[in-house]
Amino acid sequence: MTEDDLNSQPGQPRDTGDELREHEVRTALLDLLAEVGTVTATEAAVRLGYSSGLCSFHLRQLARHGHIEEAPHHGGRARPWRLRQHDSTTGAPEEEQFGDLARGLEDESWQRWLAQRDQAPAEWRNDEAFSAVTYLTPEEMSRVADVVRRALAPYQDREQRPLARPDGARPVALITRLFPLLPHATDEPGR
User: Fold this and answer.
1) Which of 18, 23, 47, 92 registers the highest number of CB atoms within 10 A of its CB?
2) Whole-angstrom Cα distance, residue 3 to residue 19?
3) Quick one: the chain helix, strand, coil %, rounded to 5?
4) What is the Cα–Cα distance from 181 to 187, expressed in whole angstroms?
């Protein structure tokens, strides 16, 4: 929990920067868990450069939402965490579950934007959300995704290189989802 969290009034929206950082911290923790397997809040803090209290808070939040779980340990104060183990009831592999989590975080960020965009500076109150439906083959769908990735490539290093950011640049979520539309159970096959 940040100092701003402690000082904010109940019901008062938090600063968008805090919300972005919250998403970044949780994503970084999930990436770290995917890389190393298990981690304590203290270990995560050392690896990621955040405070152990912040890491502990977000690890507990991720666990509360069912994305991670406590790893088995033998007493002591250390509390190791791991990605939630493969759930044999869903049959979904861990990579798929991790993708579902990432999409959930994206959706959460989008809903927060919709609810609070009127609090953004005037020049940032618009978004560029759009969607389209077209008929593609699996190969064409992959080519479209590659074109989008190449279009974004020149901007990707700005997160790690703050000096590469032009004046006035702010973090912007860039989300693209390409997937086949499946028929509803009541639709006729082939339509």
Assistant:
1) 23
2) 13
3) 50, 5, 45
4) 12
Rounded Cα distance, 10 and 22, in Å: 18
Check residues 10 and 43 and name the one with the higher pLDDT: 43
Q: Buried (b) or exposed (e) across 6-42, using 16+ Cβ within 10 A? A: eeeeeeeeeebeebbbbbebbebbbebbeeeeebbbb
DSSP-assigned letters across all residues of 53-65: HHHHHHHHHHHHT
Q: Spell out the CATH class of 3-126.
A: mainly alpha
Tokens of 102: 């990432």
Q: Measured between alpha carbons, how far is 13 from 189 in angstroms, rounded to an integer?
A: 47
State the pLDDT at residue 174: 79
